[in-house]
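Protein 1 of 2
SEQ + STRUCT:
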Amino acid sequence: MRSVRLSSPAIAEPSQIVVPAIFRCRLTHTRVQGVRRSFRYTVHLWLVDVDDLPRLPRPLTALARFDPRDHLGIAGRTLRANLDDYLAANGIALAGGRILMLAQPRGLGYAFDPVTFFYCYRADESPVCVIAEVRNTFAERHCYLIGLDQPVGAEVSKALYVSPYFPTDGHYRMRFALSARELTAAVTLYRAATAKGPAEPALAAVLTGHRVLAPASLAAAVVRPWLLLSAHRTIALIHWQARQLRLRGLRPARRRHHEPQPGVDIPVDRAPPRSKGD
């Protein structure tokens, strides 16, 4: 996959950031093409080091955990190993540099992150890229690699059917900022140009957050029930918003088969054998 460059990266060095940390974030989602609709939600996200994921004592792991199986790559391997494979498939070697992940933990046995962000660094702590791992409600995922080396606008072609009311044409523009206490992730979808004119914005999503707890333990999720139910709330809100658009007359676009992505989807010949009773 082609690496895309982002102008003026504002990604702090990992040694300046305390992890694990919980960020209270505001997600603003605005649809500007077709039916216009905008909404805002508050979500609590965790910033963690993939080499040192927070853990609860074994009897409590069913309550909350960060499970590598909820992300890209081959089940049964560490998240770091799967990320290194994906980066290698795109010509990037971190040589031991750190990777920070912004995500929700699995809570009460359920996990769903519409987008997980991975901030990747070289061994000298300089930022290399951001990986945006996008999931849809059809159990498909796709990773977009945003390079941070050259001052050129960041654009990636849309490759995954996400909203049922948009096909897979067009491209995304993305920008990121991450400091010890604040973060921003902004994604704008531009629909493909036509004979009537150039590509135009169709949808914009902006995530802004500030740190509310650091260092954080997964015990914080156990004593704060809304953290345990965060993924459940996310999927409920997605279906609620889809229902509202349907009631306003929109009809789903045809879903295109998603082609497996090297280092992201599990190849059939490398998938772990299923145990008896699966």
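Protein 2 of 2
SEQ + STRUCT:
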Amino acid sequence: MAVLCSAKSMNLQDRISLGLQAITKKKPIVSIASENQVSRKFIQVQKDKISAGIENAFYPKESAEVLFYLPVSLEWIKQFVLSLALDCRASFRGIIKAAATLLDYRIPIGTVFNILSETIQKANIINEAQDLSKVKIAAPDELFHNNHPVLAGVDTESLYCYLLAEEEHRDGDTWAIHLWDLQKQKFNPDYLVADAGSGLRSGHRQAMPTTACHYDHFHLMQALVKARNHCKNALKSALTQHLKMLDKMGNTKLKNKASKIHAALMMAEKEESRAQYLCDMVVTLSGWLEHDILNIAGMSPIVRYELFDFILDEFEKLVSMDPYLHSAVTLLRNQKNELLAFIEVLDKKFSKLAEAHEVPLETIWHICELQRYNHEGDAYAVYSLPVQLKLAERYDALEEVIILAMNTTERTSSMVENLNSRIRPYLFLRKNIGKKYLQLLQFYLNHSRFLRSEHKERVGKSPVELLTKQPHLNWLELLGFKQFKRAN
């Protein structure tokens, strides 16, 4: 009788507490029931109620209640088509199916085409009216769709796409024409970062001879990775052959065969030693190049140039041992100035900082090199101590502006590769894309806001907003549509 009374006398909060204790399983249900003078069945009932409540919170039951009414007009249908095509990357027939499934409305495929075509002219007017003077570091590139080149270009800081055009050719004249057209929109970056595409670089020399075009480090790293992998695979093959010959030598019983196998074994040992030396050298030299010379945080320009020349000489010696390395070595030799151009950019920035903060340029470069170390580690503390004692309270402020200068110095065209990855799903849906569709896509990419990004300052903003530092309307409203808003 006492058990029944205890259960009846409990208020809501007590029942919730018992249910939570049972769910967390910190105590057995038997213990909880005994401590609170209730039955185990009573505890199980409270547990089931809380479990059901949690499930309903995350998986609410369907309701026939109308959330809001949507006025479906022809103008709204056009927005529906555009949003599916651009926000959802839907194909024309996918749009037709969605309209029939969700709206019980049939849209002919010609109408879908016409809706997109109507907006292209408005989108292109906005594209051509954009002031490109704020593009400071440009990254041009080429991608292909059904063997047709698509020329692209992006501002590395804001991700603003300043060029997106399908062409028949990708030669120097084609690139030059596009660059001349862009200059009408005040396109005049501090420098460009691009790969070794001959047409791209030829067009750049024609249209912008006074603007530097740095070589993209990413493509060099790819070449070095291929060289390393080639040498590692050659070493594995040589080791396998050596072990194979050792096995044969141990199993042979005939004297006339033993001499031949012994000669082959000596050759296998020699080849393994050669492959081991070559592999070690390539891994070491490419590591120095990547981590000591081409790293933003590093030594002064003079040391980097001397080290680069040393590494290039050593690589050239290795070509005689393995001709496969010839292409990577040729790239290093021919693109030396473009690969190291970022050092000159840093040196100019650091010279201004040295003058503004009245410190020697060598001190600025020393702080730059210190950024190779973990700020929480012992190495950073030891090597930075002399500079910190010398600069006293000025050290932190100076280090901050040096890091900013380093972070705003581009060495790769990775942002245009990022753009290419966002463009490809749209191209995949169509055999023929055409210049006009790309104009609409360029407009959309520039005025669509980022939902997520590793850089917090980009979240919730479009490339245009990041470029101009000014807000703008939703991309549909910029095209002249009135966006649907629910009544409060």
